[in-house]
Every structure is written in structure tokens, then in C-alpha cells.
Write a structure and sequence with these properties.
Elements lengths: L1 H33 L4 H18 L7 E3 L4 H11 L2 H20 L11 H23 L20 E4 L2 E4 H16 L3 H4 L2 H5 L2 H19 L19 H8 L14 H28 L8 H18 L4 E3 L1 H9 L6 H16 L1 H4 L4 H15 L2 H9 L2 H16 L2 H21 L3 E6 L2 E6 L8 H8 L7 E6 L7 H13 L6 E6 H19 L1
Parallel strand pairs: 6-7, 7-8
Antiparallel strand pairs: 1-4, 2-3, 5-6
Length: 526
């Protein structure tokens, strides 16, 4: 029975896995390039995400690999630690921390992170992606001219500017790539079967490869130079693969276990990667036609093992990625087999498609990531959150500015603190209200009253004149601070001397009245 079910879904999983591979290949290369590391590192992470994480994961449709959201941490981490080898140790440690999160069943805590904080983090990542990819999108290379020199044309394919040499071919490829990425999502183009079946990143990559080949034949001076294209080392055997992995030079840097900066980067990676993974799982569950939920703690353990392996063999940090996962769902995937097939195809491409991959202009990959950044930080997101009011907009902006000014972890902490302060302010604001009708006064406790409520309570009690009637309604307060109760008890004790009639209604009394009313209604019904 299981074998029959396997063959019934294998064809759809094979198709879905192929589609995800075509989406993942340019993204793996682009994220590696944006991170300032060898393109091979991105492919290693994609392969581990497909062959390791997909097998261990409890999600049937989620696809894991290098994520654009972690580019900022990778770039800053390498700069801070001084080498990619030291950063790989942080990746390995982050995997161990993630596995620990899963063992401690910490997956449920992600739900407590406020949505504006997560959106602010993603928007900041989008802004940083756009800024960091502009040099590649322009084909910028070389140093600025010396003082007093005038910008001038440099050959047929480049223009010398105060910032360096800009490639005309790169600029044109970037503009065409962005036009494809935007047009691929419009209704006008979605009517065509080709657009519906060919992923936009693949169309961009095909454009880049075609442009490189065409210009190489017709106008070699305009063709993207080797330094402006992907540079994947040719691999003819598994021995060559092992040799390619040696560039990571990982082993000796276990000595940096005592370096606090390594642990700081590892903790940042573990937290952000876990958040992104759990958000992706939630999004996949929403678009899954069968609404199948994945155990978050099992996913954290699977991601932890994946990052342990990626850090050990020279790969970028891994998360569950919504772009590849949504492509998997829309391609009709039925099981984890599609993600595994995508990993197998990535591994095969390392050996069989190196010469083709090396024709891809870096401008294409930069355009893909710029478009990703625009979707993360689109202006409509800012407008939509601003319309919701100060409560969500303030932590959103605080997180965004915090990430841009410091780093991801500090930005997230600042956003959460802002949310907590706003929540405290909302709970402490006007907990007590006084209403008057003639000589009758109603003092209402609208919510729990802390010691801060003592000041407004004292102010309201001073307004009660002699001979008045006061009703104190505390039925909606689960908690009333001792100082507040003491102040109220003192007023009640002194009230008879001033001719004030006081009635205090507590929550217990309200519950008792409700119970008596329910009992009477039940007796009448019987």
C-alpha cells in the first residue's frame, strides 16, 4: 500500500523538485555572492538543506537552504570575526544552539515575538539587501579616480565614474532582469503558460546566460567580464569536490571557541534563523491545500543538524525559506521527496553544469536579490502599518532603525522592548474612571490596578463631596494593588462620618450574582 502511494505521488514530487531546483540554483548563487563568499558555499547549503534537513524535517512541503534574510549576519559576522573560517565555527555552534532550542521545546516561544518586530526586521533586511547589491547591479569595479581627474569613458563596455568603473552591460542586464521580475507577477503576463510554468529567477538567469553568449560573439568588448560572472570551480569527480571544500580551512579555527564574538554571532544566527524558519513553516501551512501542520520543535532540531553540517563543510547558514517552499507548494509537491530531489539536482549541477553556471552575470543575481529586498521593504508595508496606529508602528520603526544602526539581534531586542513598554503603557493608562450623575458617583476599575493607580484614585476620591453616594465597581479587575486597596479601605472607613454612602462591588460578588442568576434560570427552565 505504501509502495503504491509512493509511485502515485513520485511523478508530482519529481516535477515539483525540478521546479524548486530551478528557483533555488540562482538564489543559492546570489546569496553566496551577496555574502561575499565563494558561490560554492551557497550551493553546499542548498544541498544540505535538500539532502539532510528535508529528511529530518516534519514538514512535507518546506524547503531549506541559504536565506537572503541571513546575508546581513553573514557579512557582518565575517567582518567581525576576520575570516570565513571563523564564521563557519559560528554557523556550527548556531546549529547546536538550534538543536538545543528544539530539545527544550522552544518553538512555541516564537509566537510571542510581536508581528511588528518581525516585519521591521524583514524590512531592514530588505533595505540592506538593496543597498549592498547596487555595486554588483552596476558592475562597479576599480577605485575612484584621483583628485582633479574627470570621469571618462573607459572602453566600449564601461564608464569611469568618481566611484569606479561601471559596466554598461551589467546596468542593462540589471534593468532587464528587474523588468522580468516585476512583469512576471502581473496579470497581463500571467495569462501565458510559459510565464506560469517558468520561475522568474530562472527566466532572469536564462536572460543573463543568453546575453553573455550573444555579446561574446557579436560584441566581445561589451560582454560581461569574468570578474562580473559566477566563478564556480570545475568539478570532475568527488575527489575534486573534496579539494574544493578545502578552501574553507575550517579545522584549525576550533581554537576560537573561546572567542566571545564567535558565540555572539552564533546566538544571533540561531535566533534569527529559528524565527525565519518558524515564520516560513506558518506561511507554508497557510498555503498548503491540506493545511498540514509541522512540529516546530522537530523542525528546529532538523535545522540545527543542517547548520552543524553546513558549518563543518563550508556552507552558509540554513533556514526554511518561503520563496522555495511556496514554489514547491504551487508546483504540486506531495511529500518531502520533492525537497530531497531538489537537493540531489543541486548536487548534480555542481558536477554537470559548472560551465553553464559560470556564464551567469552577477548583475542577474543582484537583480534577483534587489527585487527580494523591494518585496521585504515595499512602501505599502510602511503605509499599512502606519495606518494601524502608534502601537504597531513604533516597534516596527524601532526595530528597523535598530537593525540598520546596530545589528539584527540588538534591533530585535529594541523592538521587543518597545512593544513591551507600549503594552505596559496601555495597561496602566486610565485604569480608573469616575462618572457622576447628580449626587451619585460611580468609580470604575476598568482593568487591573497596580500601585501606579494610587495617584488617580486619590485624586478622584477627593472629588467626592459630603452626603454623596459612591459605588465602587471593581468587578472587571482581577488584581488590585495593596496600596490601592488600603487607600480605598481608609476612605470607606471615614465615609460614615461625612455622610457618604459607599457600596464596593468586587469580582467575587459579581461572579456570585451571576451564578445565582444562572441557577434561578436553570430552576425555572426545569
Amino acid at each position: 500500500m505504501n509502495l503504491r502511494a509512493f509511485f502515485s505521488t513520485f511523478q508530482r514530487d519529481l516535477l515539483a523538485g525540478t521546479v524548486v531546483f530551478l528557483v533555488a540554483l540562482p538564489l543559492c548563487l546570489g546569496i553566496a555572492n551577496a555574502s561575499g563568499v565563494e558561490p560554492f558555499a551557497g550551493l553546499v547549503s542548498g544541498i544540505v538543506g535538500g539532502l539532510v534537513v528535508a529528511v529530518l524535517s516534519g514538514s512535507r512541503l518546506s524547503v531549506s537552504g541559504p536565506a537572503a534574510g541571513l546575508v546581513v549576519i553573514v557579512v557582518d559576522g565575517i567582518a567581525q570575526l576576520g575570516s570565513f573560517s571563523a564564521f563557519l565555527l559560528a554557523v556550527l555552534l548556531s546549529g547546536a544552539i538550534q538543536f538545543g532550542f528544539g530539545m527544550l521545546k522552544a518553538g512555541r516561544f516564537a509566537a510571542y515575538v510581536p508581528s511588528p518586530v518581525i516585519k521591521g526586521m524583514l524590512a531592514a533586511i530588505g533595505v540592506l539587501l538593496i543597498v549592498k547589491q547596487f555595486p554588483l547591479a552596476l558592475g562597479l569595479s576599480g577605485a575612484a579616480p584621483t583628485a582633479g581627474a574627470q570621469p571618462m569613458a573607459q572602453g566600449a563596455g564601461a564608464i569611469l565614474t568618481p566611484f569606479g568603473s561601471i559596466s554598461l552591460a551589467a546596468c542593462v542586464i540589471t534593468l532587464l532582469s528587474l523588468a522580468i521580475m516585476v512583469g512576471w507577477e502581473t496579470r497581463a503576463l500571467r495569462r501565458f503558460a510559459l510565464v506560469r510554468h517558468v520561475p522568474a529567477p530562472l527566466a532572469v538567469v536564462l536572460l543573463g546566460i543568453g546575453t553573455t553568449l550573444l555579446l561574446s560573439v557579436l560584441a566581445p568588448s561589451l560582454a560581461p567580464a569574468a570578474e562580473h560572472r559566477v566563478a564556480l570551480p570545475p568539478l570532475e569527480s568527488f575527489a575534486a569536490l573534496q579539494l574544493a571544500l578545502e578552501w574553507a580551512d575550517f579545522g584549525p579555527h576550533f581554537a576560537q571557541l573561546v572567542n566571545p564574538d564567535v558565540w555572539r554571532v552564533a546566538i544571533t544566527l540561531a535566533i534569527v534563523a529559528s524565527l525565519e524558519t518558524l515564520l516560513s513553516l506558518e506561511a507554508v501551512e497557510q498555503i498548503d491545500p491540506e493545511r498540514r501542520a509541522a512540529p516546530p520543535d522537530r523542525e528546529l532540531k532538523a535545522q540545527g543538524v543542517g547548520n552543524l553540517i553546513a558549518g563543518a563543510i563550508g556552507g552558509l547558514p540554513i533556514t526554511s525559506v518561503i520563496v522555495r517552499s511556496s514554489a514547491n507548494v504551487h508546483a504540486g509537491a506531495q511529500s518531502r521527496l520533492s525537497a530531497i530531489i531538489h537537493g540531489v539536482l543541486l548536487l548534480v549541477s555542481v558536477f554537470a553544469l559548472t560551465s553553464v553556471i559560470n556564464l551567469i552575470p552577477l548583475a542577474c543575481l543582484a537583480a534577483i536579490l534587489i527585487f527580494t529586498g523591494l518585496k521585504l521593504a515595499k512602501p505599502s508595508l510602511f503605509v499599512a502599518i502606519a495606518k494601524q496606529g502608534v502601537a504597531p508602528f513604533a516597534p516596527f520603526i524601532v526595530t528597523l532603525v535598530g537593525v540598520l544602526a546596530t545589528d539584527l539581534l540588538i534591533g530585535i531586542v529594541l523592538g521587543i522592548l518597545c512593544s513591551v513598554l507600549l503594552a505596559l503603557y496601555a495597561n496602566l493608562r486610565s485604569p480608573i474612571v469616575l462618572a457622576q450623575h447628580g449626587d451619585h458617583y460611580l468609580l470604575s476599575f476598568r482593568k487591573d490596578v497596580s500601585f501606579l493607580g494610587k495617584v488617580p484614585l486619590k485624586h478622584y476620591l477627593q472629588q467626592i463631596p459630603d452626603g454623596a453616594t459612591l459605588i465602587v465597581d471593581a468587578t472587571r479587575a482581577d488584581f488590585v494593588d495593596h496600596d490601592v486597596r488600603e487607600l480605598l479601605d481608609t476612605f470607606v472607613a471615614d465615609a460614615p462620618g461625612r455622610g457618604i454612602a459607599v457600596e464596593v462591588r468586587h469580582q467575587v460578588q459579581a461572579q456570585a450574582r451571576a451564578a445565582r442568576g444562572w441557577s434561578m434560570r436553570r430552576t425555572a427552565a426545569e
